[in-house]
Specification:
Rossmann fold; alpha/beta; about 45% helix; two-stranded antiparallel ribbon
Length: about 300
């Protein structure tokens, strides 16, 4: 009897840093298999953590056991690199213990950690939560009041557990800006590090996926309707509600916000002051600089 394929590559974050585009580039390589349905299984989060950070993910049930998780990779065949990309794996301190669980699962795994200008990433994180998870506060209140927005951009802190358990040779840190500036060269270096053909030519190197729209819907009122839409009950009854009524409900409970029309100058000043020393810490940790992060080095 064949043993189930076990993933040996984990793209662990950071969220809103190009992980979807990076996943697509990996998926295109004939020697790499990536979980794509779903792309982000988030298996190494507990059920309680899933319910906290992304309600709805727990209904997939991967937390119930390893066998269900390994089903995602049964079509990998003999491809030498088998992996998944779950940005929730680097959400300290809100999500803890992930690096330890991955190390226990496969201590020889390779870890890729994508980063982005931390000021831009924190702001993008906020708009993502407005759009998908009912964040009602203005950006100033949210980014100062919820540490998850800014802690996820503290890359040195997020990287440390992975480096401690896997070592420098098994962890690859990469900025989104580098990837977008020269995707072919960047991915060729990643492929070489993974031990697969670095000469593979990306089919659509310039395409960037999952960019935030210019306008987003923000919840009105108490937000109870939005929380209900992300509940287990709605996952059951929602598909039974006619589409016309669902659209009407969204129209009554949400308002459209143009992101570019919101004055973020005070937010940016706050984030620059917060993230600059963290970037210096990261540079010391990795022994490299990130001049592409223009919010920090402006």
């Amino acid at each position: 009897m064949n043993r189930p394929v076990r993933p040996n590559l984990f793209v662990v974050g950071a969220m809103r840093s190009g992980t979807t585009t990076f996943h697509r580039h990996l998926l295109a390589h004939p020697q790499v298999f990536m979980s794509s349905d779903p792309k982000e299984p988030s298996y190494f989060l507990t059920r309680e953590q899933l319910l906290d950070v992304q309600p709805g993910l727990e209904k997939r049930g991967f937390w119930r056991g390893e066998d269900r998780y390994l089903e995602l990779f049964k079509a990998a065949g003999d491809r030498p690199v088998v992996g998944e990309a779950s940005a929730n794996y680097a959400r300290l301190p809100r999500v803890s213990g992930v690096a330890e669980r991955v190390a226990a699962f496969n201590p020889d795994a390779r870890i890729v950690y994508l980063m982005r200008d931390p000021v831009e990433r924190s702001i993008s994180h906020y708009w993502y939560m407005v759009r998908h998870f009912g964040e009602q506060r203005d950006a100033w209140s949210a980014l100062r009041g919820e540490t998850d927005y800014t802690a996820t951009s503290h890359y040195a802190m997020q990287l440390q557990p992975w480096l401690s358990r896997f070592g420098d040779s098994q962890v690859y840190a990469l900025s989104m800006e580098q990837m977008l500036r020269d995707p072919q060269l960047t991915m060729s270096r990643v492929f070489a590090w993974l031990g697969v053909d670095p000469a593979f030519v990306l089919p659509n190197p310039a395409e960037h996926q999952n960019a935030a729209p210019e306008q987003v819907q923000q919840v009105r009122g108490s937000g109870r309707a939005q929380r209900f839409r992300h509940s287990a009950l709605w996952n059951t009854v929602g598909p039974l509600v006619p589409a016309r009524l669902r659209r009407l409900g969204r129209g009554l409970s949400e308002r459209r916000v143009a992101r570019t029309a919101v004055d973020m100058s005070s937010v940016r000043r706050y984030l620059v002051e917060l993230h600059t020393p963290q970037v210096r810490q990261l540079e010391a940790l990795l022994g490299q600089e990130f001049p592409e992060w223009t919010s920090i080095d402006q």
